């Protein structure tokens, strides 16, 4: 990129060469293929363990790492031997139990039962030659699609090959689920499909012996073509400056509106909080007032109900003013003593008033007023 200092033009020069990112390792959906961790391969490469290339060849048709990588849109970079070794259990033989066929749970045969180029027994089982023979037979079985857990070696009997049933901790209490036996040593095949034993020793198109196919393929993903970069044209500093000023004004206006909206939201939040507090106080006051009214109503009703004598019906009297059983309407009012105690004011033909210095009361009007008051309070309930 170059900037002009003395002129009014801002010149941008873009280099045409663009770096291409390395594609990610693809997922190979195949039960005969193990995708190794990225740390197993060099930077920019993908490592795959193809389950014994010969077994893969028979079922998939990919004879070499080149054909395997190409079939998955990659190019082969290298071919590595993988890490295969054997763990030895001294003074142990494969698991033996009465529930197993022949009592030797994992025994599947001697090396000559599997190797097409060997037809002996190798009786000196713990010699280096017999141990190498056991390893070769076990590797051959795996390379041809079979299963080999390991082998046992005995000076005199020779070498016996085991499948996974040779190790059974539920039936046998020796180390590794084996049986302790001083005359035997047992070797377990340890297979680490993603671990390389060193630098590549074969080229990508190598087709080895059937028993020599424990290899990993290092493939290089094919990168996609780079995306063309948009063409940058020359423009004047004045036009660019004007455009930037317009953008700055728009940003400033948006920030101002945002600040006003935030202030309005804060004010509304405070108002809502105040109204909520006021509503709570009003509710509390209303509850107190309702309770006071109820208590007052109860006291008044109780007091009014305590006045039955004032509003009771008139007391019958046997007093007459004309000597007959029926009093006439124009009977002269009288005040008479009632036998047994009390006072009877008889004014059937006219009204009776109690006169005082401050008021005049008609007891009948008073009774009617009290009746209406009691009725009104009773209706409140």
Verbal overview:
This protein has 381 residues and is α+β, with helices and mostly antiparallel strands. The chain is built from five helices and 16 strands. A hairpin with a 3-residue loop joins strand 7 and strand 8. Helix 4 packs across helix 5. The radius of gyration is 57 Å and the shape is elongated.
Percentage of residues in strands = 15-25%
Number of helices: 5
Major sheet: size, sense and barrel closure? 8 strands, antiparallel
Category by helix and strand content: alpha+beta
- The percent range for helix content is 25-40%
Number of E-state strands:
16
Rounded to an integer in angstroms, the radius of gyration calculated over CA atoms is 57 Å
Strand arrangement in the largest pleated sheet = 2-3-11-4-10-7-8-6
Q: What sort of overall outline do the alpha carbons produce when their principal axes are compared?
A: elongated
CA-to-CA gap between the ends? Answer: 93 Å
Write down the secondary-structure element order.
Answer: EEEHHEEEHEEEEEEHEEEEH
Mean pLDDT: 77
Low-confidence stretches: 1-23
Key words describing this protein structure:
20% strand; 381 residues; two-stranded antiparallel ribbon; elongated; alpha+beta; 5 helices
